[in-house]
Specification:
The complex is a heterodimer of chains A (205) and B (181). Chain A has ten helices and one strand, in the order H-H-H-H-H-H-H-H-H-H-E. Chain A is mainly α and 205 residues long. The termini of chain A are far apart. Chain B is mainly alpha-helical and 181 residues long. Chain B contains five helices and one strand. The chains are: A mainly alpha (205), B mainly alpha (181). At the A-B interface, helix 2, helix 3, helix 7, helix 8 and helix 10 of A face strand 1, helix 1 and helix 2 of B.
Amino acid sequence: MATEAPNVDDQALVRRAQAGDVEAFGALVERHRRAVFRAALAAVRSPTEADEVAQDAFITAFQKLDGFRGDAAFKTWLLAIAWRKAIDRRKSMTRWVQRLVTPARGGEGRYDNEEWDPMERLSAGDRTHEDELMTSDLRARLKPLIAALPKKLRDALLLAGSGDYSYDEISQMLGIPVGTLKWRVSEARRVLKTKMAAMGYTDVR
Amino acid sequence: MSADFDEAIDGAVREMLDVEPRADLRDRVVASASRRNHRVSVASAFGRNRVLVCAAAAAILLAVFVARRSEPVAPQAPVVAHGDDVRLPSAIAPSPAIEVSMRAARNTSAPARARATVAAASLADNSDVALAGIEPLKRIAPIAIAPITQDSIAPAGLAMSPLNPISEVQIAPLTPPDRRN
C-alpha cells in the first residue's frame, strides 16, 4: 500500500496509478491538492466551490489517466483539467447569479471582449458597505478591487501572485502565450494602482 | 496615505488565496476512485462474459426456431364461403392425405397438377364422410383424353388471276392555238 511518496516522482506514481494503484493516485492528490485547490479558488473565489471543483478535477484526472502519455508534466496536465472545471463552475455560478442581479452594462475600465461578470457586480455593489466595515488597511481595500478586475486580468494576477505556479504552467492553464500572460498581470497591476491613487493613496516607489 | 503598491497587491493576492483545501480531499478522491475501479472491474467482467451470454441466447433462439419449423403442420379445416359466409362442417374438410397431395400438386406443372388433383379427390377418407351421414364419393374413373391430331396448318396454294390488260391510251393532238391579231 503506497502512502506518501516524497522520493517518488510524479511519472512513477502516474504509472502505478495507471496500473490500478489507487493509493498511488492518492499520493498524487496529496502532492498537488493545494495547487489544484488554489487554481480553483482563483477562478471561483469561494472555498466551498473550489473544494468541489478540486475533487471533481482529481476524479476526472483519474478517469482520464490512461490517456495521459507524459508529454507534459503531470502537474501541468492536472492543472489544465482543474482550470477547465473551475471555469465551467464559474460560468454556471454566473448564470445563477444573473437571474438574481439585473445587469448594468458598461462602466469604466471595461474591456471590449470581456463578458459582464455578475460576481464582480455583486462585490462592487457592496463596496461602499464593505468600505465601512473594513479597516483602513490597504490590503483589505485591495481585495474588492482585485475581485472587481476583469476576469482575464484577475485570473492572471491571482494565479501569478499565488506563487504556486510558474508562468509556463499558468500560460498552459489559460491557453495563452507567456507574453500575453505577463501583459495581463502588468495591466492588472496598473488598473489597481490607478484605483488606489484615486482613493487617495500614493505609491512610495 | 503612502504605500508600496506592488507589495500591497502581492500581499492582498496571497491573502485571497491563503485558504487550505479541506483535509479530507485526498480521502474523498481515493474513495471515489476506488468505487469507480470496482465499477469498471465489474463492467469489464460483464463485458468478457457478454459474448458468451449473447452466444448462448442466440443458440437457444435458433434451437427454438428450428424445433418449431420441424413440427408437423396441424391440419386445419378450410373454410369455403358460398354467398353468405357459411362455415362448412369440419366433417367434410379434406383429410391430411388430400391436403398433402394437393400441396404437392400446387408445386408441379399443370398436367401433373391435374393428375394429382384427381388422385387427391379419389383419396377421400370414407370414414369421415360416413360419420357425417353423407354417401361416400364413388371412385372417379380416369379421364381419357383423345390424342391431339396434328393438322397441317399450311395454307392452300394461292392462284393469282392475271390483271386486265390496260387499253392503250389515245391522246388527241393539241389543237393549234388561235392566231392572235
